[in-house]
Design goal:
mainly beta; S-adenosyl-L-methionine-dependent methyltransferases; 8-stranded mixed beta sheet; 4-stranded antiparallel beta sheet; DUF4384
Amino acid sequence: MKKLSNALTLSTLGLLSVAGAQGKLSAQSIIVNPTMPDLSVSVRVDRDPSGNQNPTYRIGDQIALDATVNRDAYVYLFDVDPAGVVTQILPNRLSSSNFVKAGTSVRFPAPGDRFQYNVSGPAGQSKVLALASLTPLNLDQISEFKSAQESFAVVKGSGQAGLAQALSIVVNPLPQNSWMTDTAFYNVAPVQAVQTGSLYIGTNVQGATVYLNGQNLGAANVTYANLGAGTYPIRITAPGYVDYNGRVTLSGGTISNISVDLTPVITQAPVTPAPTSGNLLLDFLGSLLGNVAGTTVTVNDPARAAMDQKVRALQSQGYTLTRTPAATATGYVATMTKGYSTLTVTVERQPNRILSVQTSETTLYRY
């Protein structure tokens, strides 16, 4: 049965059988003209312009039909689904004319039509039968509209034998050189099941939030099902913790697991800038020598003083210290962050009382 909504539904086509007195059956059970008139008709589905193949459509796919004649003729299109329901595709209540000029084609749906033709079940071997006639045919005796809402008429009778018998009634009175048929085959496959998988996200923080492929999936420490198979970016966030950014691959029919330990954000108490004299060299030397309290002079480690000065400068630019300066064999190292950027600060002692202060920055971009 045809149904009209935003798209039209095309029932799949089956095989034809017995013909009437004038028409006869080919080896493929197609009703054919026993003579070879100079009238010819060709019908094709859009996935097989050659007409020599048996293309596959899945239920729900759009389909279009093309019929060509070598003489001015009236073209009639029929389908038979594997369940035996026979439908008259053309003419119908949506396409008022089925007259085709010689050497031209008629397409259904035609360009500009505000509807589409979709394949519906059941699955199986299918067929479109085209009948061309030099004179218009009266199909009222073999097909009828089931209701005023139906766009396609249904042929009386069932299956290939029913259609062949019905068509024989129509073509028997015609001259043998005034009609011709052709058939197009295609296969209908069931809708392919969507592969989905599940994902468990474990973290060391209760209340963490998970973003999968940019979408808020929900809380961590939960298993999520019915997720499309594929590889996606994943981000896990929690207040007071550094965001985790990575990728996860989901496979159909399986549960993928990801476990993440979020790292707390290390904050440092605000640093009170040391008094400055306005002379950069004197200020730096002062930081190296430390503060004078009375007659006692505390001498700082020059490498650590250089590290502290660099950290203060970066903090004034909006960076946050996430790893306090740690001593190394040659100096100090610290880590700072700003947005999606991570900055590593390294101070090294070099020969001849030289200090080397280096910064290395890594920025993550989302795409």
